[in-house]
Input
Amino acid sequence: MTTVSERDLPIARVYAKAMLALAEEQVQTNTLLAELSELAAYVEHDRELGDFLASPLVDAAAREEVLEKTLRGRASDLLVDALEVINRKGRLGLLRAIAQVYRAEYRELRGLVDARVTTAVPLTEELRGRLLAALARFTGRSPELSERVDPSILGGMVVEVEGKKIDSSLTTSLHDLAAALAQRGLQEIYRGALAFSA
Amino acid sequence: MRFKVDEIASVITEEIRHYRSKVDFSEVGRVLEVGDGIARVYGLSAAMAGERLDFENGASGQVFNLEESSVGVVILGDYLGVREGNEVRRTGELLSIACGDELIGRVVDPLGRPLDGKGSIDTQTRRPLEWKAPGISERQPVNQPLQTGIKAIDSMIPIGRGQRELIIGDRKTGKTAVALDTILNQKDGDVVCVYVAVGQKESTIAGLIDRLREHGALDYTIVVVASAADPAPLQYIAPYAGAALAEHFMYQDGRATLVVYDDLSKQAQSYRQLSLLLRRPPGREAYPGDVFYLHSRLLERSVKLRDEYAVVPKDTPADSRDRSLAKMHPRGVEAPLDVRPDDANGLYHRPHGRQKAEKWLGSLADREFWRVHRFPDSGGSMTALPIIETLEGEVSAYIPTNVISITDGQIYLEPDLFFAGVRPAINVGISVSRVGGNAQRKAMKKIAGSLRLDLAAFRDLEAFAQLGTELDQATQRQLDRGQRMVELLKQPQYRPYPLAEQVVSIFAGTDGLLDDLAVGDVARFEEVMLLHFRDEHPDVLDEIARSGELQDDLADRIRRVIRDFKTELEAPARKEQGDTDQEPQDQPKSGQER
Output
């Protein structure tokens, strides 16, 4: 995924917040999230569509007509209306940034938080429940797990949440132990205390 | 040889038994994009500006830009091994460097890693690279000389401890040579030297280190290297690393230090590179807006720290650093106003602090139980010799003007002089030292007081005399004197002069004792004259070195010795050569006769 420019975020935030407030009123936050994500993914995939939306060379009225024809009825009215307003302001180029901020704002509002879990074997239902509870306690929000199985960590688990990484995997422990032993060995060699017999 | 496997195994078993595996908890972000030594890292929302980060491949980074959902990081080290999606860990620490006596004689990179193959450096102490410069009350005016051993500088542009004296000039004018000679001249002295090489060729640096080693200067010198091959971030932090190394000796041991930044124009260029890559707005000559602060915060760290005295109990050890002892005397803060301590902690640290402390001690009834103590970690200094390279003598470019305005004077080296054989090629007209005069030894001040202005006047006159006009006698004399002084101030590289010899030499010139010599003979005469002094009259040199003064009777004696020596020298020469060789040399200047 190509990243959204940092500079676009402040402007995108204005539109995203307004859309979220309206969606909340009409109880459509989830629909809008899905639609926006889909649209953003489509724009990223199709460069020509992106150019059509972003280019100042395209007349705003013409663009509105196209939006009206292609989306009205197929997507929620809220999305189409919002897109037309954004179009009138000439900001459709920020569509991906708006989608990204909308998602972040939505999750903030719902108190959701992403958590990545890596384990050597698939999580059992019971373990998943305990992990979710622990993470909820740790973050104070409701965590959404994305699970990954990686046999190379041998055992234990690695959890990444809110930019923090809690690594209790066996591989890491073994690496640390190896480093500690090597360090200790170096010390011993320096002291000349390791017993060598001639 | 056979070693006991059992024994090793048991040691390892014991080690593992006591090994407590901790859960590895860290704050991590991921590399969004990387290139040209710059990475943008997503996450790390708690990272601080200037914090050190660790990359997955072992490289360190420093946080430069804090943005909404990412941070801009400069990578110190191998940035080719950093990939998109790599993990980046916070360390919660600022950049720092190991420092201490172990570093002396070593060659290190700006993060303190050894480059000289002499093994790892184990020190107890580390210092952050960036350190706030001491404030007004912690300083004292520059009052002690830092002898460079270069006649032209010590006489006309004297440098004091704690001063910042810029060495500026085009490429190949001997800037590094001046700095290097200054380091060599600290041999057998109390000054710790740090040489910071920024953006130079590795071959040049290797040669320079060899010179230092040959002359025994590595015994008191640390070399910090960020060569042209190193990434820009390392070149940018190198001067701060050098300053931190010197600060350790200054703050911990109260020692005098000398730091050479060679050169700051390259550092400014690497900082420009970083800033542009981080998309900071460019200003004049595409340098970022804070390029002045880049150099001012570095050079402000140069300081002459105050000397701290206090009246302490008599049994205090001489090396005590415990400032609370200063408050022991119950009547300290109530002492009469003219001898009262300079702060509420009972310390005397303004000028004449020792005299004041002693005066007060003398007036005490219980004085036999107390004594005046000088805290040994006070009074250190850091002298800076930043070097700036100009293009075609353009001192009004951005970086040169900035650094000129920050420093306490500049030594300006000129290619024209250099190629005319005047080496060191110092243009005395526009070289100045704004504070060093106070630090100059009395002897030197006495004989060289007007030398700089006289020489500058001579340069003007010389240009005028080229026109071939008739000159009156006074002008001719001034010209003759000037030519001989210029000869006298020439000095080969790696030959620093001790103070006493400089004084004798320059005294001979300014007193007119060389006026009757041919210009071409001055250098040779000076050499044998100093040899004569060393062999026959070492007491004269010792007296000057000891007192730093030149009393009238001593001056008379030097005058007499030189006159006698001259007649001694001329007598056999006359006999051997007849007067044939002497003839053309006696004429002042053949060009002017026309």
In short: The interface with chain A takes residues 1-4, 7-8, 11-12, 15-16, 19, 21-29, 32-33, 42-46, 67-70, 87 of chain B (CB under 8 Å). Residues 579-594 of chain B have pLDDT under 50 and may be disordered. The two ends of chain B are 91 Å apart (CA to CA).
